[in-house]
Amino acid sequence: MQSWRRRKSLWLALSASWLLLVLLGGFSLLRLALPPRPRPGASQGWPRWLDAELLQSFSQPGELPEDAVSPPQAPHGGSCNWESCFDTSKCRGDGLKVFVYPAVGTISETHRRILASIEGSRFYTFSPAGACLLLLLSLDAQTGECSSMPLQWNRGRNHLVLRLHPAPCPRTFQLGQAMVAEASPTVDSFRPGFDVALPFLPEAHPLRGGAPGQLRQHSPQPGVALLALEEERGGWRTADTGSSACPWDGRCEQDPGPGQTQRQETLPNATFCLISGHRPEAASRFLQALQVLAALQEMSPARVLALRQQTQFLWDAYFSSVEKVIHTTLEVIQDRIFGTSAHPSLLWNSPPGALLALSTFSTSPQDFPFYYLQQGSRPEGRFSALIWVGPPGQPPLKLIQAVAGSQHCAQILVLWSNERPLPSRWPETAVPLTVIDGHRKVSDRFYPYSTIRTDAILSLDARSSLSTSEVDFAFLVWQSFPERMVGFLTSSHFWDEAHGGWGYTAERTNEFSMVLTTAAFYHRYYHTLFTHSLPKALRTLADEAPTCVDVLMNFIVAAVTKLPPIKVPYGKQRQEAAPLAPGGPGPRPKPPAPAPDCINQIAAAFGHMPLLSSRLRLDPVLFKDPVSVQRKKYRSLEKP
Amino acid sequence: MCASVKYNIRGPALIPRMKTKHRIYYITLFSIVLLGLIATGMFQFWPHSIESSNDWNVEKRSIRDVPVVRLPADSPIPERGDLSCRMHTCFDVYRCGFNPKNKIKVYIYALKKYVDDFGVSVSNTISREYNELLMAISDSDYYTDDINRACLFVPSIDVLNQNTLRIKETAQAMAQLSRWDRGTNHLLFNMLPGGPPDYNTALDVPRDRALLAGGGFSTWTYRQGYDVSIPVYSPLSAEVDLPEKGPGPRQYFLLSSQVGLHPEYREDLEALQVKHGESVLVLDKCTNLSEGVLSVRKRCHKHQVFDYPQVLQARWFWEAYFQSIKAIALATLQIINDRIYPYAAISYEEWNDPPAVKWGSVSNPLFLPLIPPQSQGFTAIVLTYDRVESLFRVITEVSKVPSLSKLLVVWNNQNKNPPEDSLWPKIRVPLKVVRTAENKLSNRFFPYDEIETEAVLAIDDDIIMLTSDELQFGYEVWREFPDRLVGYPGRLHLWDHEMNKWKYESEWTNEVSMVLTGAAFYHKYFNYLYTYKMPGDIKNWVDAHMNCEDIAMNFLVANVTGKAVIKVTPRKKFKCPECTAIDGLSLDQTHMVERSECINKFASVFGTMPLKVVEHRADPVLYKDDFPEKLKSFPNIGSL
């Protein structure tokens, strides 16, 4: 009995301890005892190895390549690349100089115009010996004339065969080391980094100028179709944002969804257009499978906005005319010659593009007026005044004093361009004054003189009349718009129905599209553009009809910026500055109008009319406001 | 532990039959229970340290325990690498499908040890670096443990160093992976494709279509756009501590630090050094280092000793892409990810610009220079609560503006219904009323679907003083500056030197940096930015304070475009929260304090002061000129 009782108490103690053990430790023990299982939802991941510390490194000292000599790679036989097949030694001097083989026999009008366009470009050289690239045009599809092997062929070394349209001729000679620029090259024959791929150009593609992109607004219009899909024979199927794609299983049996097929030549109005190559069915399946629609819907408005603008920019900058396509090809080759000092990608990919941001000027974006914001920099706070003294040749003493009085003026350059001898004495100024003896040519005014040391140029005519505060205010405005011209006096272009051409007027109107360069701020880069990128014919035109030079300069800047110039207030209606300053509303001496046909000749050479009109003037914030003059910084601008 | 538990379970049933030995038995039993209790107790009090040191969901094993796989000598070998592989030919994008995060899913095969028929291992199981690499992938967002959902497969077979493996057998090991399928969508990492003296340029292991992330590619082995070229990791780099880059430009333009260069290359470099002097530095191995100095961490030029890699001057790139195995692994996956989801790809700038550069530079979302057509017109958005009478006057006035194309009333009052349709003024353009869910100021900047024009005029329900000319001119100015805020009264931010913070200024100043959005034109894209991309808690702050939504908009636009506002016309104030309030000065001061507070708050959230100060405003070309009023386009431009 006793033992039973003892046993009973023992039993009790045992079971109590047992219970405690189970309660306290059961779970922990179980967790230890059972192999660990992942929690539902949590992924298992790569194991943390217990002995990870003991693992050996993948390489032993001495195995890494930096300690060993690597033999140079022998050039691969057969195929060409830039290093092995192009001789850059001929191009070291002044960049890419191109010789074009003259056409043999009868040639088409297009061919002739393309030849003329290359001959007018800054790349052209007339001597094959001095050329770094020899260009062979091969583009006459109709005439059936096929080019034969040219004289200086030399196994094609440093040659570029330009085929704007798919090869019309059987190859009559081996291309050898010649680069080929052609539309839609095949993967088999295309040598990356050596050949140049061109877009497929329709026969009617404009030679120069070209239609500007059709994009008139930055963002897509609400409600336009999201996607247009190219179908056979020029049709387009548009799909809406509403049409849902198929469930994700890589297969999709039903109809591609609501949409409509339009038969039209032009691109439809859709946010995205998918061009399918030559197999629309394949593309259609590709679409369904990839659920492009869903992916496109997923694309953020910011991205859509950027892509829209980028495509238009690329079109305008490189593709809209045959001339641009050819110049782009040459620019690509020139970049290869320049190697590391070629255009950085920013210059290719943001407005105005590599054709208008000359790498001969600089390859550093901050030197151009276009990239300050992207670079996080600002134009420097000083300008150089460039005063042109044409006939009759009075030294502009008052003007020099007024300009030198500006705190932003860094230097004054006087461009003496008339028959009278140089005066020996010049006024004392706070800033350095340099006199350049010009060549009596009007185009000299826009020569990129190495003595100009600032980004900003204040271009002046000896007969201009400005006050110091006008200069100060205008320069401040220019700093906000460094890529534009900021001027005081304006003129306009207009379409003259009666004559079926462009007209020019310096009358005061509610809008303007040009500022006179006899008193205007602009970036010094435009001197380089004027001198080195304009066709020679246009510069000659300016020399022969001096008043044309204003129009020409405004054309260049507008073609680059695609924006109108900026007008700032011009204080006094000065009578003595009659040729420049229009007087009151009554009869007043007009500035000499450019030769009537000047604007039309320039427009023809540009291939389009780049000028744009502005309806505003930038005034000081308190300009002519009825508040105390003491508060105003630019009070002298308001004097009658 | 397992065993003891089982023993306990059987225990009680045995007791009655073992009377003689019961004493020993009980003692044993008690000690076991006691031990169990102590052990349990330890787990109760210490488990935290155990759990935190490694997650329970991560396997914790030794590398010695990984399963062994025997590869028969005749098991299949993959084809040699297919050199023609490109993303669209050899990669199966359909596996990746569409996913909302635009991230590929990466699966890692479990670690195995491969041996041949004789039990001799094929390679080292895994190196420290490869383990680290797989761990980095496993910890990243790319990782999935579901092999069926994966789009990219990473074998755990370590091929980082070709010298440590048997080529044929390693290839056989690859071929028997469960999803191998000719290597489609498999990614191999290799840093040392061979050893000195004749390094190969790519891994020799036959790998068929598998992608290779390799160090040391040449143009002959690299498959353009398919393989990924990665740096060769140096185990020594883990301990490198780089100095911050000092101010000013870099000391060297060109620096070569590689030792063991081919003599011809070295000659070329040295010629460059002779030509360019100080700006070129060519380093080599040091020959005269004192004992104990790690030679791999030093480079020499003549007798000058430099710390390596500190001398390299490229800290950001080094840290972002070279320094660690993790950086190399994640950059590789990002590159592949960008190819598969190109529309969500990381931009050039994001790859290349150190984050600090972003403060200065901007990439304007409306970068294409465009002057939107006048015909598009603008949408006026009137935010209103319950001032119906004033609202109706505003509607009537605004409807007189020629370019108005739609009027949107944002009814911000949830307690009251808008007036019946018949009571609204009859105007010539569509009028829509949008009711909001909450009375928030942010509602004025919501990108409503009803906005069909790019130009938006935000206007308060009490702005009745603006003339039709003034508004039309404002729209014209916006067309010339579509990426800016174009408004009427201007305001300024100033730095308060005494308080050491920003101050809001509404006095007569010669400068402006903000415009009030009580009436302002802007691009509708900024509504999207305001609603979805406003940094920090600014939106909530505005709604909580019921103030400063205009300052927030000014900050946002200036920050994203880097450009100043355009103030139009002399207009100085609308109504008078700032001057003629009922209790005058005190309210005025409270208002100013609150507005100043907003500027300081926003500047701290943006991390910078994005507002730009300018001294100009836009007026019509002939504003206040001596010119017949009736010939001016905008004669009635209003007053202060």
The CATH homologous superfamily of the largest domain in chain B is named Spore Coat Polysaccharide Biosynthesis Protein SpsA, Chain A
Quaternary arrangement of the chains shown? heterodimer
Number of strands of chain A: 20
Mean pLDDT of chain A: 78
Rounded to an integer, what's the Rg of chain B over CA atoms? 36 Å
Secondary structure class of chain B reads alpha/beta
The helix fraction of chain B, in percent, is: 25-40%
In what order do the strands lie side by side in the largest sheet of chain B?
A: 14-13-12-15-20-16-21
Q: Spans of chain B of 5+ residues with little confidence (pLDDT < 50)? A: 1-16, 47-58, 576-584
Straight-line N-to-C gap of chain B: 90 Å
Based on the coordinates given, report the CATH architecture of the largest domain in chain B.
Alpha-Beta Complex
In short:
By secondary structure, chain A is of the alpha/beta class. Chain A contains 15 helices and 20 strands. Chains A and B meet through α1, α5, α6, α9 and α11 of A and α1, α2, α5, α12 and β22 of B.
Strand-helix topology:
The complex is a heterodimer of chains A (640) and B (640).
Chain A: H1 2-33, H2 82-85, E1 98-100, H3 109-119, E2 133-137, E3 159-163, E4 179-183, E5 196-198, E6 225-230, E7 235-239, E8 259-263, E9 270-274, H4 280-290, H5 292-298, H6 301-319, H7 322-338, H8 345-349, H9 372-375, E10 383-389, H10 397-404, E11 409-416, E12 433-437, E13 456-461, H11 468-480, E14 486-487, E15 490-496, E16 501-505, E17 514-515, E18 519-523, H12 525-532, H13 536-544, H14 548-561, E19 566-567, H15 598-606, E20 616-620
Parallel strand pairs in A: 1-2, 2-3, 3-4, 4-5, 6-9, 10-11, 10-13, 11-12, 14-19
Antiparallel strand pairs in A: 6-7, 7-8, 13-18, 14-18, 15-16, 15-17
Chain B: H1 2-14, H2 22-45, H3 47-53, E1 68-70, H4 87-90, E2 106-108, E3 113-115, H5 128-139, E4 152-154, H6 167-175, E5 187-190, E6 211-214, E7 228-229, E8 254-256, H7 263-276, E9 280-282, E10 298-301, E11 304-307, H8 315-322, H9 325-340, H10 348-352, E12 378-384, H11 388-398, E13 404-411, E14 431-435, E15 455-460, H12 468-480, E16 486-487, E17 490-496, E18 501-505, E19 514-515, E20 519-523, H13 525-532, H14 538-545, H15 549-561, E21 566-567, H16 584-606, E22 616-620
Parallel strand pairs in B: 1-3, 2-4, 5-6, 6-7, 8-9, 12-13, 12-15, 13-14, 16-21
Antiparallel strand pairs in B: 10-11, 15-20, 16-20, 17-18, 17-19
Helix pairs in contact in B: 5-9, 8-9, 15-16
